[in-house]
Design goal:
It is built from 5 helices and 17 strands. It has helices spanning 35-48, 65-74, 102-108, 178-181, 265-273, and strands at 27-31, 58-63, 82-86, 110-114, 117-123, 128-133, 136-141, 147-153, 156-164, 166-170, 193-199, 210-213, 218-223, 230-234, 237-239, 242-249, 255-259. A 6-stranded antiparallel beta sheet has the order 6-5-16-13-8-9, with no helix packed on it.
């Protein structure tokens, strides 16, 4: 399903139930366009068999973190559990690559459930573009001019004017990505929170962002949009020259990622907070 045309109110099917020690017998292998990932897909498919995605009990994604996000987006309709193995450059969301004992690793894997953000972005013509973000929704200035944004939470204006390069709303899963680079907080995956983080804030100079409830509805109004144009991005889906952007969590969508036992996403996030 193409989330760029995602209906703002349409619920998706309930995710397939996943319990610890499930025994998958139907696997789909997918790979990024890196040669080593495609070669791994061919070897694993020959060894373990590969079924069409609609018949799979688990998807094994071979690539890096970007490809994991792409696989999760492509899996919005089926919501099949995804187990990643690193055949890319960045592997924070991936398990170590190992071809042996794959069925046992899948059977014993821990699961992490993600809920994406819904972005509704209005352009000056009044047309609205909607997308889903597993990591973050970000607003960024398009020219040399800084952006000016008004920020409202649950229909109450909280910041009349933020002069900045941009601002983002990150999920717990996305808190270790762009949000962390912008000096936002790392959020445990089981925390019902979202990060609201400015990007190179100029005024108010000391505002460092906020932690919000996962139920919060965030609205950005772009001030001086002709002089200071702003783009809005939900993961890799971009809308340019926006006038207003609204962000909320889609709790009705549950995407499941599988991690090797003892190496859960929660453990990786904890380790990241204590790394040098």
């Amino acid at each position: 399903m193409d989330d760029r045309r995602f209906d703002r109110g349409t619920p998706l099917p309930s995710p397939r139930p996943v319990t610890r020690s499930f025994q998958p017998t139907a696997i789909t292998f997918v790979a990024s366009d890196r040669p080593e990932a495609e070669a791994a897909r061919k070897r694993l498919s020959a060894r373990y068999g590969s079924v069409p995605a609609a018949e799979a009990e688990v998807i094994v994604a071979l690539g890096g973190d970007g490809f994991m996000l792409e696989t999760l987006h492509n899996n919005l309709q089926l919501q099949t559990p995804v187990y990643g193995m690193n055949r890319g450059s960045v592997g924070f969301l991936m398990n170590d690559y190992e071809e042996d004992d794959l069925l046992d690793r899948l059977a014993q894997a821990d699961r992490t459930v993600l809920h994406p953000l819904q972005m509704d972005a209005w352009v000056e013509s009044g047309q609205v573009h909607s997308g889903l973000a597993i990591n973050e929704v970000s607003l960024l200035r398009q020219t040399r001019q800084s952006a000016k944004l008004r920020i409202s939470i649950n229909d109450k204006v909280r910041l009349e004017e933020l002069t900045c390069d941009g601002c983002l709303v990150a999920t717990p899963a996305g808190s270790t990505a762009y949000n962390l680079s912008a000096h936002g907080p790392i959020i445990p995956l089981d925390a019902p929170s979202l990060a609201l983080t400015p990007i190179s804030a100029f005024r108010p100079r000391r505002w460092r962002g906020a932690l919000l409830s996962h139920t919060a509805r965030v609205r950005f109004d772009v001030l001086e949009p002709d002089k200071r144009p702003v783009s809005a991005t939900a993961d890799n889906f971009e809308v340019r020259r926006v006038s207003r952007v609204e962000v909320r969590e889609r709790r009705d969508i549950a995407l499941t990622m599988l991690f090797d036992a003892g190496r859960s996403y929660e453990e990786r996030v904890m380790a990241e907070q204590f790394s040098a």
